[in-house]
Amino acid sequence: MNQVPSPASELTLAATPNAVAWARRHTVDVLQHWRFPVEGIEVARLLVSELATNAIQHARPPASTTAPYLGNDAIGTIVLKLWPTARGVLVGVTDHDPRPPTPRASDSHATGGRGLLLTQTMANRWGHYPEPSRPGKTVWAEVPTQPKEEITGPAGSGLEVTSLVMGQVLTALREL
């Protein structure tokens, strides 16, 4: 019996700041290989950036798994997962923190706290689940094949900023 496994991608990264850039690069490469639409690739890249950034903040392994000579500052890992779906592609990032993600209310001057808001806006759906084989969770988002019009469409007065543009700006600021 000849069965071709469904395409999926998984990449484990050290939970360091440069992991976000590697996660974005890997996402773009895989989605281009899968011939995912360009507009969807950009949304996936932004969502992976947000999810990976959040995961890195929570990726320190539990103290029971940290070697004594590494102390409490041991570097954890995150895992990027990509799966095609009928409506797009699921992107997921796993970290060692079992606590569910919680959107934060932030004022207009805050430098963070908008990642889950952008995820809610750009994804078809999103959520999280506990990892069955180890402590931690996976936060996932479904990227539509064609992004929502309100994300990419032209602003009415020309002064409004779409979610896609805001995500691109935030990602570019992180890359500085």
| Secondary structure category | alpha+beta
Strand coverage percent: 15-25%
Count of discrete alpha- or pi-helical segments spanning 4 or more residues: 5
* Oligomeric organization of the protein chains: single chain
Mean pLDDT across all amino acids: 79
Spell the H/E element sequence.
Answer: EHHEEHEEHH
| N-to-C span | 51 Å
Biggest sheet descriptor: 5 strands, antiparallel
3D shape: globular
Proportion of residues in helical segments: 25-40%
Rg calc: 17 Å
List how many beta strands DSSP finds: 5
Instruction: Kindly report the spatial arrangement of strands forming the biggest sheet.
Output: 1-2-3-5-4
Which regions are unreliable across 5 or more consecutive residues at pLDDT < 50? 66-72
What does this structure look like?
It is a single chain. Helix content is 35%, strand content 20%. It is α+β, with helices and mostly antiparallel strands and 176 residues long. Helix 2 packs across helix 5. The chain is globular, with a radius of gyration of 17 Å. About 4% of the residues have low confidence.
Keywords:
single chain; 176 residues; alpha+beta; 5-stranded antiparallel sheet; 5 helices
